[in-house]
Amino acid sequence: MAGDGSVKLIDEKTGKRTDGRKFNELRPTKIEVGVLNNADGSALIYMGNNKILAAVYGPRELHPKHLALPDRALVQCYYRMSTFSVAERKSPAPSRREREISKVISDALNSVILTKDFPRTTIDIYIQVLQADGGTRCASLTAACTALADAGIPMRGIISGVAAGLVNDTVVLDLHDIEDQKGSGDIPIGYSATLDEISLLQLDGVFTIEQFEEAVKLAIEGAKQIYEIQKKALREKYALIRAEFAGESEEEEAEEEDTIEIVSQSLAESEASVDETAIDEVESEELEEKKTEEVSEVEEVHEVEESVSEIEEVSEVEEVSKAEEAPEAESVSEVEEVSEVEDSEVEEQDLVSDIAEELNDELDDEKELEEDITSLETGEPEKNNESITDDSSESVENETEHKEIDDLEE
Ligand code: ADP
Predict the structure, then answer these.
(1) Of 235, 222, 236, which Cα lies nearest the Cα of 27?
(2) Does residue 410 sit in helix, strand or coil?
């Protein structure tokens, strides 16, 4: 609730606020995305001392079903402040303020979510304020829209929430709790930088038109800065996912390479076995060819033998027929045999005559020796003695030799 603005919240000399910020400066803001494993989308925002967690579930079936909308999804937002989120214990029962904040955040998100893509479903957004320090609805809107983006809910744009207020008659950006309570008023807005569209605008306090326009303008500039923070958070989260996916893909690639190697080895082994079987088949074929060749050769030999025997039979038959037809040929052969016998007899006679000549020569030599011996004993001429004394013996011996020759000649 806005105060009367009498409390000095801005240093007149420096122009700085109680926390040291300038009038147009945001509190330190940080967003983490995907902080809850069970939620479809989640985001945790740190905005100054605010710590707010947003979780998105859906689109999913709606219970009770009679609340379902036939043409679009129902966006249900649950803003809750934790009992420990403020200095004094906050009641756990849902307050009227919490219901109001839940409604304005739901309406703002409904303006960008493509609810017609998911008829008869619900998109549930749970916002839990862990620590409150002013401006929790704007920070909750920022966290909720970031969680929707994390959940992959299709939206026209991203909403960024921030408030601008009036403190000591000065328009300042992003009021903290003391400024919110002690200031003259605040204007929380929800703004989509991509759409250049305001989806949430509330006003608490009293503003002049110039102050109002200045506050809205300042809030839009602040929302644009918050939008950059949202984008950075989402990109960081999906960069991690991409890196993990790349690592998994590398592992998968390595596994695929291993499987490829195993498959190639098995293929090579199978090819080798196929080659061996092919070689066996070739060898068996060669053996069969050799067998067939040998069989054919044997058959050819048998055929040749049969043909030879047939030829011999035919020749014998022809000889028989020739013999029957030409008996003169036998007589011719007989004549030839007779002539051969005669030739052999002639040769024998020639041998006998040669032997007889040799014997005559030997006889002549003996005669000459005897004549020499008698001439030496008698002192007479050899020819006379020999002629007188040896006529009888020579005649006897000559007669025996001539008889032998005659026998041989016969
Ligand atoms: P917003 O948080 O959006 O500014 P309010 O203006 O209603 O919403 O609240 C301003 C601040 O007052 C809150 O941020 C919170 O710090 C404080 N506050 C709200 N409700 C309570 C409560 N029940 N008990 C204590 N402090 C509260």
Answers:
(1) 222
(2) coil
89 CA → ligand 1 middle, Å: 12
Tokens of 207: 């503003």
Which of 85, 179, 180 has the most ligand 1 atoms within 8 A of CB, as the residue to mutate?
180
Ligand 1 geometric centre to CA of 134 (Å): 6
Q: What percent of the chain has pLDDT over 90?
A: 55
Residue having the nearest C-alpha atom to atom 6 of ligand 1: 1
Domain extent at residue 225: 29-249
Q: Residue 383: pLDDT band by 50, 70, 90 thresholds? A: very low
Asked if residue 254 belongs to a domain, the reply is no
Whole-number Å distance between alpha carbons of 396 and 394: 5
18 close to 9: Cβ distance less than 8 angstroms: yes
CATH at residue 144:
3.30.230.70
pTM as predicted: 0.65
The single-letter code of the amino acid at 16 is: K
The first and second tokens of residue 354, run together, are 């040669």
Which protein residue has the closest C-alpha to ligand 1 atom 17? 134
| CA neighbor of 9 nearest in space, from 202, 222, 166 | 166
The strand pair at 74-81 and 121-131 is best described as parallel
Q: How far is the CA of 6 from the centre of ligand 1 (A)?
A: 20
What residues does ligand 1 touch, defined as CB less than 6 Å away? 86, 88, 90, 97, 132-137, 177, 180
